[in-house]
Amino acid sequence: MHLKELGELKLIKLIRKLSLTTFNPQIKVGIGDDCSVFNNGIVVTTDAYLEDIHFVKDYFSYRNIGKRAVCATLSDIAAMAAEPIAIFISALLPKDLKEKYLIDLYAGIKTIAKMFRTQIAGGDLVNYPKLGLILTAIGKAKHPKLRSQVKAGDYLYLTGYCGISETGRLALKFQLPQKEFMVAIKRHLTPIPRIYEALKLKKFIRGLIDTSDGLSTDCYHLATESQVKLKIFYEKLPIHPETFKLQKLLAQSNKDLIFNLALNSGEDYELLFSSPNDNLPKTIGNVKLTCIGKAERGRGVYLIKNNKEQPLTPKGYDHFSYSNKSFSSELNLF
Amino acid sequence: MHLKELGELKLIKLIRKLSLTTFNPQIKVGIGDDCSVFNNGIVVTTDAYLEDIHFVKDYFSYRNIGKRAVCATLSDIAAMAAEPIAIFISALLPKDLKEKYLIDLYAGIKTIAKMFRTQIAGGDLVNYPKLGLILTAIGKAKHPKLRSQVKAGDYLYLTGYCGISETGRLALKFQLPQKEFMVAIKRHLTPIPRIYEALKLKKFIRGLIDTSDGLSTDCYHLATESQVKLKIFYEKLPIHPETFKLQKLLAQSNKDLIFNLALNSGEDYELLFSSPNDNLPKTIGNVKLTCIGKAERGRGVYLIKNNKEQPLTPKGYDHFSYSNKSFSSELNLF
């Protein structure tokens, strides 16, 4: 059996099983959440960001690459409603990289780090043929919010828009007029993590995850870890006007484009959380907040569309499977 | 200017400068030591371990690759005289890797993690053409030992042997009879970190580093960070009989081989530390302990050989420079 036949979800299960026999009493939550949690409230996450896997240099400047990597990693700290403290950077650097590009890369890293008072506190440098950043972020919270804390009866909320990052990526890829896709492109290039929003909302939050793999997969994680049933109301999903514009320009005849963008495209880095409160504000700061579903007793994720309930299978980005290598190739559209 | 022209020491200085403007009050020691240190005594290190850069699959089994990566990373925790708590693993995995090899890899990781009661507490999986492990280790110490704590008048100690790992690597590379190089090969394949030795010795230790880059470079780090002069007594360096054997077999006429192995070859992962005490035991557990030098007022590293004092320039492994790409190519011997 090869890894590509296993697929990512099974692979994670396997790794989790292999790791389970190791133990230290100072760890409260190990593998399985956005961060691990130490007894003293320290939370830790690690994230790889590699050329031609996670980004292409075609439309990412070095500064953007640096910014993006830190945004994505700190989003896991936001997903615990924690405050970031420090990041550690393993940088894979081609030896013929120009010094000025390295300075740009670190300028991007610094911009986001400073925005969240996060210290670049260490790292490792490796001469490698392709550029890559592997980041570890460390934060702290008195009561970190977990994926496993959704309770039956909770309401499910989402910040921002679903499918906005993939909208931006496709607009860039197909060289659509950039000024028509300003919001989407900005979210794709620099997905500012929802740290401050999570800290403001934390008193209302029970279960929490960030949307990095696609809404269907992220809901699956929440439902599985919390052992509840999640119902998603399709008509309530916050879809940005630029996503509708994309459909018009790219696939007028394909109504599934919106559906797939909203439910199965990744890297939005929004907060997806449950709350016992059904009356949260419609915005938090200047970020939209939408109630998109409910948690009930039971198992699995279900989509309510045209008043019909249907199972929603996790179809977000899978790093290992062939049949679902990426959202775009799955659609066979582009 | 390209990175290869800068060289690693200058590159580290540049990155340090670029990172210095970021700040969080919970960080006590940032970039520049083996680990970063938080106010609460948490220490953090990150280390990349990549195919064809740090290891070749020719003589490393998957199990060995896993063991080796954890050993090297935990050695940085030993270099703070701290106790490890957890490791986080970003694994770059080719999608056609067989599941059983992944299980072997993790079995190796687990073996060392369990030896030091360290939990595999999180990570990230990426489908990547070449195998790689990027590890972050987190530990704790009441009083972490720093590179900057050597004082003039201190004695300099080294655990184990210098040049032993490179001896093992060369024995494997040139397919010399393995039973003649058992100690060296074992140290090269599985450099068990000196965690327990550091914890036993910590009451005697002032400045501390682990020998990963080669003794000359590691001494340079200690001297620079502590702002002292270090004198190394060449005749006192602990050189293993297998290293002499290697010289006999490979380069009878080249007397510099021993010199270069002892001073400029890396990855021994031994403790190099200073102590005000000139009378430490000759072994700690079953690991040799040798006084190899002294710290004085002044700057720089000097070698005392045949009663003559000469400057010792850092010539250990440089990941970026052309002229000093690796120990072996520098020697032009192999």
Give an overview of the whole structure.
- Two copies of one chain form a homodimer.
- The C terminus of chain A is likely disordered.
- Chain A has two domains: 118 residues, PurM-like, N-terminal domain (60s Ribosomal Protein L30, Chain: A, 2-Layer Sandwich); 185 residues, Phosphoribosyl-aminoimidazole Synthetase, Chain A, domain 2.
- In chain A, the strands form two sheets. In chain A, strands 7, 8, 9, 10, 11, 12, 13 and 14 form an eight-stranded mixed beta sheet that branches. Chain A has a six-stranded mixed beta sheet with strand order 1-2-3-6-4-5, with helices on one face.
- The first copy, chain A, contains eleven helices and 14 strands.
Which stretches of chain A are poorly predicted, pLDDT < 50 over at least 5 residues?
322-334
User: What is the number of independent domains of chain A?
Assistant: 2
Give me the number of helical elements of chain A: 11
Strand fraction band of chain A?
A: 25-35%
Order of secondary-structure elements of chain A: HHEEEHEHEEEHHHEHEHHEEEEEH
Text of the CATH class of the largest domain in chain A: Alpha Beta
Fraction of residues in H or I helices of chain A: 25-40%
| Spatial extent as radius of gyration of chain A | 19 Å
Please report the distance between the alpha carbons of the first and last residues of chain A. Answer: 30 Å
Largest sheet of chain A: 8 strands, mixed
